Amino acid sequence: MLIALTLLTALTGCLDDPCRGAEGPRVYVYGADNAHRLDGSDPTAFGELGEAVAAAEPGGAVCVSGGTWSEPVTVRTEGVQILGAGPGETTLSAPDWIGDAPLLTIAAVDVVIRGLTVRDAEVGVSIETGASAWLDNLAITDNQTGLAAHGPAALALDDVELARNAWIGADITAGDDRPLVTVRGGRLVGNGDAARSPVGGLRSELDLMVEDLEVRDNAGQEVGDLDALGSLEAWSLVVERPQESAADAPRLRVADGLELMDSTLHLDGSPGVDVRCRAGSVRLENLIITEVHPGVTQEPLRIHDCRGTLYHGTFANLGGGDQAAAVALSGGGALTIANTAFIGYAAGIGDEQYSGYWRTRAVFEGSVTEAQLVSPLAPELDLRPQSDSPLLDSGRDLGVTTDIHGVARPRGGGPDIGAYEY
Known about the structure:
Layout: E1 26-29, E2 45-46, H1 49-55, E3 61-64, E4 67-69, E5 73-75, E6 81-83, E7 90-93, E8 102-106, E9 111-119, E10 123-127, E11 132-141, E12 145-150, E13 154-163, E14 168-173, E15 181-184, E16 187-189, E17 202-204, E18 208-211, E19 214-216, E20 226-228, E21 232-235, E22 238-239, E23 252-254, E24 258-267, E25 273-276, E26 282-291, E27 301-317, E28 325-343, E29 347-354, E30 357-366, H2 368-371, E31 373-375, E32 382-385
């Protein structure tokens, strides 16, 4: 279990104590601006980050001042906390001689890394088999692979930015342990290469739980943003419209069940979500998917062999043309679709390759004009229904008590169709 770290005050980058309030014995790492602290009189003061980490006691803290360190670092001591002054203030940068070796390697359990930028390496952060880590308030940028976790015993990412990593933002493989990987807050932006990366943003063989993550401009040949080879639970996920994408690569691909709540995906020609179910199911609530590519022929949501529900969805094809359905069903399963608006598509459901059962309740299918939305045109996109919209008060009571922005539902004579409550 990851160590809970109590901070009595916010980290401010104070050179005297960049991890003020941390528990356990401490060692300190000082940069050139504080060379006078390295005169040998203080056995807890170090000028090299790697030396300080090696000297840290189990459960202790390595307090790193502002500055840049160009050295590979390996954590081998249980419970060590490496605490910097913040991303952009404390930076670990790859030296020219490092080659293919990871820049920061975690080879122990209950390790906490906070307040650093890790950049310019072949692998920014590597977590070895059986190790466990809590990564908090980090910027892992401009590497080939940002984060590589090889069978971790536990892994949590809070407010981590994975950006501009040329091969992939994060690659998480499974070992003997199969923990739930959690990602809360942070950004997944500009990772991968559409010409050579199989997956651009994040790939995980372990089940994922994601909350409040901003996703944009990740590019891969098979998957753009998130490739979950287990299950995915996501809340408040925002996938912005990509600048570049492979034509057939979905933004999200899920192999064994999906819960996607209060989330928005903006597309430009590529599929949005491709989900399959082995033992899992689908639960989709307060979901918005928009498409702006003219004459799109790809369904934004593909569901294969799944049982479950799609409640309060807003699917809006804003690019003109109506060659595609909004949802493609294939394989078997059973799906209930209710209080959902399919706007500007040739059909709500495409089931030519489906042998299962599906039903709809309180579903709207019509044009953008017929839906009567506040502002269906970018850049002032607003897909809330107007006061005279046919979406108002036309839904069923499904027990979904708030809309995508937390507005209480219903506010009128019944719930509104779609992700918004007027």
